[in-house]
């Protein structure tokens, strides 16, 4: 049954990628907010996810104690692990922004596990493990991850340890190459060799090193939304108000411009 579910998930992902409405900033996780559920052979599961409910009744259930929407997923570890897993296509070499919301009363409740796979589902490199800790209200976990060169698929697991209970909602995995504002690489209006930004990753102040005057900058988040436009002062940009994540900065010098990607990580 698990193998059949994985095959169906891969087919759904292929159809999603072929959709003309797809943008590069789209969330790659299907049913990311656990709003859609179906019954299969008397087992209720969230659409596009495979859970421990198939072998351990009551370990992965629907709940109205949600972060957004109507429903969320509740994982209850008994004497074994409780888990939910989904799989989707990825692009080798690309960076992805992962985000997941959880709450739990257990000190160390479990983890998110991100595993890169070949088409044969053979793992590529070690998985990325993000511990889930005690938070009595919903807390967001974020991490920037990169798909290895030979990766074709990415598997995302949410795991609750034995004796722990995790409420989880709003799982996001977005490609950081955003249509329309991605980093320039060819046919540049502004020679990128004459302009650099540092440090990257950055915590508070992003500095601009340029051999030509930079008049103004525009910041975009990973979804492509403009979040700030300002005139450059002292070749420095205050990003202390931004959350951890991936952003793009468009720098203008006269009628020329270029775009660079930077990471906020504290």
Describe the structure in your own words.
About 3% of the residues have low confidence. This protein folds into 2 domains: 174 residues, Jelly Rolls (Sandwich), CATH 2.60.120; 73 residues, Immunoglobulin-like (Sandwich). It is 6% helix and 51% strand. The chain starts with a helix and ends with a strand. The strands form 4 sheets. Strands 3, 4, 5, 6, 7, 8, 9 and 10 form an 8-stranded antiparallel β-sheet that branches. The chain has a 4-stranded antiparallel β-sheet with strand order 14-13-16-17, with no helix packed on it. The chain has a 3-stranded antiparallel β-sheet with strand order 11-12-15, with no helix packed on it. The chain has 266 residues and is mainly β. The chain contains 1 helix and 17 strands.
Indicate the overall shape: elongated
Provide the CATH superfamily of the largest domain.
Answer: Galactose-binding domain-like
Order of helices and strands: HEEEEEEEEEEEEEEEEE
CATH architecture of the largest domain: Sandwich
What share of residues are in beta strands?
A: over 45%
N-to-C span: 42 Å
Q: What's this entry about, in short?
A:
By secondary structure, the protein is mostly beta strands.
């Amino acid at each position: 049954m698990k193998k059949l579910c994985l095959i169906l998930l891969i087919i759904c992902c292929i159809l999603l990628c072929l959709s003309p409405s797809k943008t590069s900033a789209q969330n790659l996780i299907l049913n990311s907010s656990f709003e859609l559920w179906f019954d299969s052979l008397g087992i209720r599961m969230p659409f596009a996810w495979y859970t421990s409910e198939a072998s351990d009744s009551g370990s992965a259930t629907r709940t109205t104690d949600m972060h957004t929407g109507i429903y969320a997923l509740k994982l209850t570890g008994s004497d074994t692990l409780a888990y939910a897993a989904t799989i989707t296509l990825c692009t080798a070499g690309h960076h992805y922004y992962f985000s997941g919301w959880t709450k739990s009363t257990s000190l160390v409740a479990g983890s998110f596990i991100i595993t890169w796979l070949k088409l044969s589902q053979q793992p590529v490199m070690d998985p990325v493990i993000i511990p889930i800790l005690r938070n009595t209200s919903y807390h967001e976990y974020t991490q920037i991850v990169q798909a290895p060169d030979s990766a074709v698929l990415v598997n995302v697991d949410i795991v609750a340890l034995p004796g722990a209970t995790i409420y989880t909602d709003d799982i996001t995995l977005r490609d950081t190459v955003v249509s329309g504002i991605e980093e320039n690489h060819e046919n540049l209006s502004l020679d990128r060799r004459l302009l650099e930004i540092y440090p990257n990753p950055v915590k508070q102040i992003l500095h601009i090193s340029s051999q030509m005057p930079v008049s103004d900058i525009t910041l975009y988040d990973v979804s492509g939304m403009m979040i700030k436009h300002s005139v450059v002062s002292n070749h420095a940009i205050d990003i202390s108000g931004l959350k951890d994540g991936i952003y793009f900065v468009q720098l203008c010098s006269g009628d020329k411009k270029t775009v660079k990607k930077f990471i906020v990580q504290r």
